[in-house]
Amino acid sequence: MHRRYISVFLSNEPAEPGSKSVKPEQLTTFDPRSLSPHNFRDISHQKVFVFPGAKRSYIHYERRRIEGKSFYTSFPDKTKGFLYYWTHPDLPPTSGQIRFRITRSKNPQGFDRGRDFCLPSGIPWHMTLAYLAGKKTYAGVCDILVRDRLVTRDAIEQLRPCSESVCLMPRQATVITSPDEIFPICLPQLNPVVYLAVAGESKQVRKIRIELRKNEEIYNFIEPGKQVFALVQFVYPKKYERNDWVPHLRIAHVYATDGPVTTGVPSSIKPRAMYPRRDFIAWCREFDQS
């Protein structure tokens, strides 16, 4: 029988600790408006859940290195809910994410009353569209997103060369496609990395490390040992200083585990440095010339 959609298989049965096999089931949408009880997943105690037929295509909770060896951490108890596509009105079409919404039951009507599954740091567990677009094993996921009009095929094609050109791109990778767009970042962290998509037909991507100061203003509204999910935007100093020109980060929105943060949030952050700065300046000039 021919189907009108691309099928992606994931388990909807909890895995017993120590078990190796998982029964595959179809996952047909990531649209929160179109969820059904069939899309409910219990991934408690699973280390990964795999797309059958693609052994290297999997979704995992955390991977840690201990004494040089890599280990997967199992999803915690009561990790039950729905995989869905998340974005924000202020973000460009290329900055969406796959997240996991924890709910009390299989009834999709409880989706809005649920909460996003978070990492121990407090930020939502997620996989960025940039990461998915560059992996052939996630082509079925991208097809579903396009079919449901959650993203456009143009957005996928814009991100694919960037993702393919970066070896071992992190699943939370942030790709910026223009100097003025808003993008997500986790705070606090001293050296966040962003990837700059090169304008034109080039398949290259510039990797930039932003060195943030240990700014007391940032830590005032964040619980010690935790992080928040922020949407920021580069703001460029009008005066160019040869050895001290670094764009600021305007903070547009901040979200903690329990929702938006509006009190005590600084309006902007001034990074200490940016490496390699010359690559960032060259990237900005490419857009000025296009």
Helix content: 10-25%
Report Rg.
20 Å
Uncertain runs are: 1-17
* Sheet of most strands: 5 strands, antiparallel
Going by helix content, strand content and strand pairing, the class is alpha+beta
Distance between the termini: 48 Å
Count of DSSP helices? 5
Q: Provide the number of structural domains.
A: 2
Report the principal-axis shape.
Answer: globular
What is the arithmetic mean of pLDDT? Answer: 81
* H and E order: EEEEEEEEEEEHHHEEEEHEEEEEH
Number of strands: 20
Strand content: 25-35%
Quick structural gist:
The chain is α+β, with helices and mostly antiparallel strands and 290 residues long. It is 15% helix and 30% strand.
Structure explained in plain terms:
- This protein is an alpha+beta fold and 290 residues long.
- The chain folds into two domains: 1-172, no CATH class; 174-290, no CATH class.
- Helices cover 15% and strands 30% of the residues.
- Strands 3, 8, 9, 10 and 11 form a five-stranded antiparallel beta sheet that branches. Strands 13, 16, 17, 18 and 19 form a five-stranded antiparallel beta sheet that branches.
- The longest helix is centred in the last third of the chain and has 13 residues, at 277-289.
- Mean pLDDT is 81; it is low at 1-17.
Could you name the key traits of this structure?
alpha+beta, 290 residues, 2 domains, disordered N terminus, 15% helix, single chain, five-stranded antiparallel sheet
SSE layout and pairings?
Layout: E1 8-10, E2 25-27, E3 41-42, E4 48-50, E5 58-60, E6 62-66, E7 69-73, E8 80-86, E9 97-102, E10 115-116, E11 126-128, H1 129-133, H2 139-147, H3 153-164, E12 175-176, E13 182-187, E14 193-197, E15 205-211, H4 216-219, E16 228-235, E17 248-256, E18 259-260, E19 268-269, E20 273-275, H5 277-289
Parallel strand pairs: 12-14
Antiparallel strand pairs: 1-2, 3-8, 4-5, 6-7, 8-9, 9-10, 9-11, 13-16, 14-15, 15-20, 16-17, 17-18, 17-19
